[in-house]
Design a protein that fits this description.
It contains 19 helices and two strands. With 403 residues, the protein is mainly α. It has a two-stranded antiparallel ribbon with strand order 1-2. Helix 8 runs antiparallel to helix 9. The longest helix has 27 residues.
């Protein structure tokens, strides 16, 4: 049975939206108070003495704070041309611009405000895209622990903006924004193959060619100056990730002994490629783009050689866009919270050279990993039910699907 959604009230008259906005703002305000360095940390001009120890102990670590000093952002060096950064170009430029805020406190505050605004923008886009599910993105406490851990929320905002433009048939602008999104954080790339498949299936060849051309041109415009100016620094992001070792994850844990990096890379690539082909086939048969993208992304998180805890926030965003059932959001939230505590507990024990580390690493840490991957797998399985995979025509309002 399909029930059409009635026209939405203006956002300031929408009680559900205002409640979601209040919850989202509350999470970010709390996170800001938790993570903002204080005392001697704020008085350190060029380095943060013992920041990791302080932050891990209080479950208050933030890459925003740490990278300000480890990447010498206070010197305002031109990203990639004068300074090597292990992130894509748009994020590197973002870090450089915000570094002009006065001092560490100003820098952290400027980033916190911009990330919060990105979260608010994400909520607006989700309200338009999935009016029956959007509030779950704001209500999750994952925003408390991951919202200001890194800059991922900005990447999620750009991805949602690109997807919104695509669903409204603003194809040229969608291609531009998707290029910005991909070179801020690569994860929006998981949507693009299925857009191409859908356009080809619908015989919109000119639109497909136009989007590809604009995306490529925008990508060249974004990366070109840095490739020419300092190829070695620009390519560091790719070299860093290619040479990155296997983390404590699916491939290296209490039950599975560490495999060589080359073997893990090969197995991961094979599994992810097979998953892509499987989802391409489903989109070709009429499956929705976001349903395919969310499943493919979940598979990637399960088998990738490195898992950063904040990736769970991306998984939740994909799940909400695909309108997975509410129970899947619960699984992802629980898994993400457990993973946060588990990851930073072991980092603290390692930093302190604690004798308790071996016991924790053998007994409790593997259970946290099991919860992480079990939560992603459970959410993906729940999201694969037929009732959550019906096609919604881009540009049309979302619909409630019920048996």
């Amino acid at each position: 049975m399909k029930t059409d959604i009635k026209s939405k009230p203006y956002w300031w008259h929408d009680v559900k939206f205002m409640a979601a906005l209040a919850a989202l703002t509350g999470w970010f305000a709390w996170a800001y108070c938790r993570l903002k360095p204080r005392g001697i940390l704020m008085r350190a001009p060029h380095r943060l003495p013992h920041y990791d120890r302080w932050a891990y102990h209080r479950l208050a670590y933030s890459d925003i704070v740490a990278l300000y000093h480890t990447r010498h952002l206070y010197l305002h060096l031109l990203p990639y041309l004068q300074n090597r950064i292990e992130y894509p170009v748009v994020m590197g430029v973002f870090l450089w611009i915000t570094s002009y805020a006065p001092g560490l406190s100003g820098y952290f505050t400027a980033n916190a405000i911009l990330i919060w605004l990105s979260a608010v923008g994400s909520l607006f886009f989700l309200r338009e895209l999935v009016p029956q599910r959007y509030q779950w993105f704001a209500w999750t406490p994952l925003l408390l622990v991951y919202g200001l851990l890194n800059w991922d929320v900005v990447g999620i905002f750009l991805m949602l903006c690109g997807w919104y433009l695509y669903t409204r048939k603003r194809y040229a602008w969608a291609a531009i924004v998707f290029a910005l999104a991909v070179f801020f954080k690569f994860f929006p790339l998981f949507i693009l193959p299925f857009i191409l498949v859908e356009l080809y299936r619908k015989k919109q060849i000119r639109t497909l060619e136009k989007m590809v051309a604009i995306f490529v041109a925008m990508s060249v415009a974004i990366n070109g100056p840095f490739i020419i100016g300092n190829f070695r620094n620009w390519s560091f992001f790719f070299v860093f990730n290619a040479k990155r070792g296997v983390g404590a994850d699916l491939w290296a844990n209490h039950w599975v002994h560490a495999l060589p990096v080359a073997v893990v890379d090969g197995l991961s690539f094979l599994i992810v490629t097979v998953g892509l082909l499987w989802q391409v086939r489903r989109v070709w048969q009429g499956q929705s783009i976001m349903s395919a993208a969310s499943r493919w992304f979940a598979l990637f998180l399960l088998v990738n050689k490195v898992f950063s805890p904040q990736y769970m926030l991306w998984m939740l965003a994909f799940a909400v866009m695909a309108e997975w059932p509410i129970s899947s959001y619960t699984w992802l939230t629980l898994g993400g919270l457990v993973d946060y505590v588990n990851s930073f507990t072991v980092l603290y024990l390692m930093k302190m050279h604690s004798p308790f580390l071996k016991w924790y690493g053998d007994r409790l840490f593997p259970l946290g990993l099991l919860m992480r991957y079990g939560a992603i797998a459970a959410a993906a399985i729940l999201g694969s039910r037929p009732s959550t995979s019906l096609v919604t025509d881009p540009g049309m309002p979302s619909q409630v699907h019920s048996a």
